[in-house]
Amino acid sequence: MSITNQDDQQDDLYQVQTIIVDKGQSQLRLDKFLMTKIERATRNKVQNAIKSGSIKVNEKEVKPNYRVRPLDTIRIVIPRPVDDGVLVPQDIPLDIRYEDDHLLVVHKPSGMVVHPGHGNRDGTLVNALAYHFQNLPVKDGNMNDRPGLVHRIDKDTSGLLVIAKSDYVISHLAKQFADHTVDRSYVALVWGEPEPDSGTVDAHVGRDLRNRLVMSVFPDGDHGKHAITHYETIEPLGYVSLIRCKLETGRTHQIRAHMKYLGHPLFSDARYGGSNIVKGTVFTRYKQFVHNAFKMCPRQALHAQTLGFEHPITGERIHVEADLPEDMANVIEKWRKYTESRRN
Q1: 3 state DSSP class of 278
Q2: How many structural domains comprise the chain?
Q3: Which residues are designated catalytic?
Q4: For the chain, N or C: smaller number of CB within 10 Å?
Q5: Residue 9: its pLDDT value, please?
Q6: Is 85 domain-assigned?
Q7: How much is the pTM?
């Protein structure tokens, strides 16, 4: 048997792998066969993944009682195991934009970490979700033990995330992300005016070879993972521009790295050079204006504004949109007024 991990989307919280069944494999129920092949698998979790269409055999959807055959090709899209340690539910307010019995869409403010990790064991979105979920009825693989994250955004990025309440729903959502059928758009303020004013960046993104804290772009594909970002200019503002980015892949810091690669780092993004004065004049008044703008938005000016997906239970297309947070809205308006004053 051969197992291949596919890195198409692996910076989101799910993984894609392909298993080719051995020539000598006896016919065994698919759910039982996969119990030993998927990390931390339970039979309920495997069955829900099969039912949701997240597990296919020879590119076809099957039932859990399907019996595997020699040389079958099994494609698996499953939520990535997250080691949260001891997850402490915390009564932290949540800005919920959509919720039903099966899932919710939450707006994460800038400054909040999505899930616990080294140096961030509490105060995260997952701690808040665990508190919100703790009284859920247990059905269909309840997410009380680990709120159902399928994707994430950076600590200092604001915006929308969809959260599953059951194993079936998280498996279905993971499949949509892997199949690129989820609509995700971000609004960003970047330095300069991109030329052309719309386009696509198709270039690998991976850890910088010298500084592990940042991601670099590898256009020759010799390092990193495949990454695609579509962008369009919404409003040019002289030395900065308001742009919209749509993701095909979900790499760590993807938009931040891609825009820096184009020569247009995100405004106020200290890690990628955007907290320096990249464009503009040498005059003291201009420098003071920019530093005041940095104070208004002391984080990368990036907001996950829209999220669209198929509801795993009803089949309805869900679309949620979040207005710009106050810090970004204020700094954009400040640049608008500056641009208008230069024209007069």
Answers
A1: coil
A2: 2
A3: 154
A4: C
A5: 42
A6: no
A7: 0.89
